[in-house]
Amino acid sequence: MELGDLLRPLLRGWTIPLLLFTVGYTLVYLPQIEKELDEGCSLLPDTHFVLYSKRVVTTQGIGPYSVEVEGERIVSVTKRSEAPKSLPGKPRVLDYGNAVIMPGLIDTHVHLNEPGRVEWEGFLTGTMAAAAGGITAVVDMPLNSRPTITTKEHLENKIKASKGKIFIDVGFWGGLVPEYAHNATVLEDLLDAGALGLKSFMCPSGINDFPATTAKDIQASLPVLAKYGRPILVHQEVVDPPADPAHLMQGEPVSNARSYQRYLNSRPISWETEAVRQLMEVAKDTRSGGVADGAHVHVVHLSDATNTLSIIKEAKAEGSSVTVETCAHYLAFAAEDIPEGATQYKCAPPIRDSRNRELLWKALLDGEIDMITSDHSPSTIDLKLLEEGDFLKAWGGISGIQFSLPATWTHGSARGMSIEQMSNWWSAAPAKLANLPRKGTLEFGKDADIVVWDPEASFVIDGHYPIYFKNKVTAYMGHKYSGKVITTFVRGRQVFEEGLHSPKINILLV
Ligand SMILES: NC(=O)N[C@H]1NC(=O)NC1=O
Ligand SMILES: [Zn+2]
Ligand SMILES: [Zn+2]
């Protein structure tokens, strides 16, 4: 007798129950499993919990508060001198004592380079590093992925490439290049597909399929951006006076290319000042009643705190809709301290002298610079030419997303910066730039995007330090910082806690 013959009479009576079970399983149980999988995206099993510490950064000031999280949102922020008790039937209380509970950082200037250059970085490693650094959302730049994100199709392709690979919220800037700058349909399609705004370069970007735009090209995009109430972010250098050919990573070998001063001379302050002068001319269109009223111009990675900043201040005072960021590395490092051949410090515009660094800090503290980003722009290690130490030919870009918080805190607290100021530059202001109204502060109804960190804990980034971004060459290596991230929550999911990451969460801001 075959096995089937044996089972047949047994199954006969079971046919209907089996059928019912299958249908029930598919309709009721499978969705439940999906939900549990999503819940498994957190290191914490709870979906309703309370965070407490003596130093919570709220819109009412910093102090002892409890922050209640339910699902993805903050459902209450309450002042109280003691941690609430964990009682049966009540949400679990996580008491972080004297640590700081703060809105997660939002880094609006990050190059994740996927698809197309995953050997440089990627969604997985880049967002793991961000989560470990207390960053709960990044906005990815349209370069250096391949293709660059200049059309709707390219953006859709990038969104697809991110599926199942991200630990935090990720949004996207679209790219503005001369080919489409005057084509409103292409730009509108890109914005409709979810781009949070546009980004362009006023000088060669180092990536061939992302050519430079002129101020006129940028001006042409502004009425489209006005219609959507979105910003254009601009890399503010123009090759003026005409090039020292060395800066373009081509040309003949140049003597003393290992000297940082040599590199600094190749990209003078005048490049930055002239670009911003041209840009602030076209930004006049954003003024109230102007042809691009509703659009916004954002200057990325300000490195010069002298003439360039003065022009930006003037444009703001005259009513143009303008903001400016600087990067953690301009606030942490100074040209005089960069060793010969140390190309891990190469970026553009370059890190300038310590006098300028102090002026950048003063401008932040005086409210003249609006926010800070990482401009995390990695490449493979070989492109950094660490052995030759050739500053003129090495890839220009600093990897450091994981260290933004400790670097800002260490250098800022030494200059009188408060935790609330830091939170404003790293969370509230970038949320506004990227138009993310549910993010940036700890308030009722907002996304539960939270970092808990210890300002007093210090550490050295050495060869043993766990670095999560892909290519572990960084300007921050060898330096000592205070400000250790304890844990990071993204929309109520605990995605990082002291060396451990949750499974990926896969949420996009588009
Ligand atoms: N292409 C690219 O990422 N360039 C960036 N690197 C850098 O240091 N400045 C930049 O604009
Ligand atoms: Zn740039
Ligand atoms: Zn950049």
Automatic annotation (TrEMBL):
<dbReference type="Pfam" id="PF01979">
    <property type="entry name" value="Amidohydro_1"/>
</dbReference>
<dbReference type="InterPro" id="IPR006680">
    <property type="entry name" value="Amidohydro-rel"/>
</dbReference>
<protein>
    <recommendedName>
        <fullName>allantoinase</fullName>
        <ecNumber>3.5.2.5</ecNumber>
    </recommendedName>
</protein>
<comment type="similarity">
    <text>Belongs to the metallo-dependent hydrolases superfamily. Allantoinase family.</text>
</comment>
<dbReference type="InterPro" id="IPR056854">
    <property type="entry name" value="ALN_composite"/>
</dbReference>
<dbReference type="Pfam" id="PF24890">
    <property type="entry name" value="ALN_composite"/>
</dbReference>
<dbReference type="InterPro" id="IPR017593">
    <property type="entry name" value="Allantoinase"/>
</dbReference>
<dbReference type="GO" id="GO:0008270">
    <property type="term" value="F:zinc ion binding"/>
</dbReference>
<comment type="function">
    <text>Catalyzes the conversion of allantoin (5-ureidohydantoin) to allantoate by hydrolytic cleavage of the five-member hydantoin ring. Catalyzes the first step of the ureide allantoin degradation followed by the sequential activity of AAH, UGLYAH and UAH which allows a complete purine breakdown without the intermediate generation of urea.</text>
</comment>
<keyword id="KW-0378">Hydrolase</keyword>
<dbReference type="GO" id="GO:0050897">
    <property type="term" value="F:cobalt ion binding"/>
</dbReference>
<feature type="domain" description="Allantoinase composite">
    <location>
        <begin position="44"/>
        <end position="99"/>
    </location>
</feature>
<dbReference type="InterPro" id="IPR018228">
    <property type="entry name" value="DNase_TatD-rel_CS"/>
</dbReference>
<comment type="subunit">
    <text>Homotetramer.</text>
</comment>
<keyword id="KW-0862">Zinc</keyword>
<feature type="domain" description="Amidohydrolase-related">
    <location>
        <begin position="100"/>
        <end position="495"/>
    </location>
</feature>
<dbReference type="InterPro" id="IPR032466">
    <property type="entry name" value="Metal_Hydrolase"/>
</dbReference>
<comment type="pathway">
    <text>Nitrogen metabolism; (S)-allantoin degradation; allantoate from (S)-allantoin: step 1/1.</text>
</comment>
<dbReference type="InterPro" id="IPR050138">
    <property type="entry name" value="DHOase/Allantoinase_Hydrolase"/>
</dbReference>
<dbReference type="GO" id="GO:0004038">
    <property type="term" value="F:allantoinase activity"/>
</dbReference>
<dbReference type="InterPro" id="IPR011059">
    <property type="entry name" value="Metal-dep_hydrolase_composite"/>
</dbReference>
<dbReference type="GO" id="GO:0000256">
    <property type="term" value="P:allantoin catabolic process"/>
</dbReference>
<keyword id="KW-0479">Metal-binding</keyword>
